[in-house]
Fold these 2 entries.
Entry 1:
Amino acid sequence: QDRLYFMEWAETIFISAMTGQRVNKILDLVDTAYESHNRRVSTAVINEVLQEALSWHSPPTTRQGKQGRIYYGTQVSSRPPTIALFVNDRDRFNENYRRYIEAQFRKQLGFAGSPIRLIWRSKKTREVERSANRATKV
């Protein structure tokens, strides 16, 4: 577990090759991981989880007194489950808060045994992309 710290989302099971103890549980965990890896979740459910997470722990405030804001989230793909979060400025969310949001999704939506990718899309990024698209269309 210490060497695989980057895979904290993975289920752990201790088995015995000599006695065969708990070997039959491996396939159950594989099935669970496969189902959660392919799971699709509606935008409404994702936003409910976000609202509950925000009510328990609001986003941190920067030194300038500005607070991050999450507008909404939606699942953009599966394999692995990828959730895009639309925020005012992604730089206002530190790594601890990002891990907190990921943990809430994992706990509430049951993504056991599967990694979750979170894409933090800030309003600035979207505006730059839109203006670049407009410039290329001319």
Entry 2:
Amino acid sequence: MKQILLLLILLAPALVHADKPNIIYILLDDAGYGDLSCYGQKKFTTPNVDRLAKEGMKFTQHYSGSTVCAPTRSVLMTGLHTGHTPSRGNREHKPVGQFPIPEDTFTIAEALKAKGYATGAFGKWGLGFPGSEGDPTNQGFDRFFGWNCQRNAHTYYPTWLYDGT
């Protein structure tokens, strides 16, 4: 009994200081379950995503929170059901973004930062224009690079990218 107790005492610090997993969450607009080769796509390959899936975790019962862009991102960022999320549509705030999610909205980035994670968002945001309360750097992200406005993101050659740090 003493040996087991001693072993538990010696192992306890290792359990407390276990490394946190790295989290890379990829959201693709208009992508279906079978659009990546790690899920069975045969027409084209996605080797880098396949490697991430093989070395990490694949979600097989994970579905879009909405039928359009901004509400889907809002569901992902807040964990709220579509009917309760701050963004219920793709309403634009011209000239450079969508209507922002409110300042008091608690996001996954804020939850991760509270646990000591560095956070970043890259690509299309659509939940607030630069400098607004919905700007990703005002919603818990340490770094953002991409588009705040969905309209500007729908081209291969965007006129600009926002670098918010």
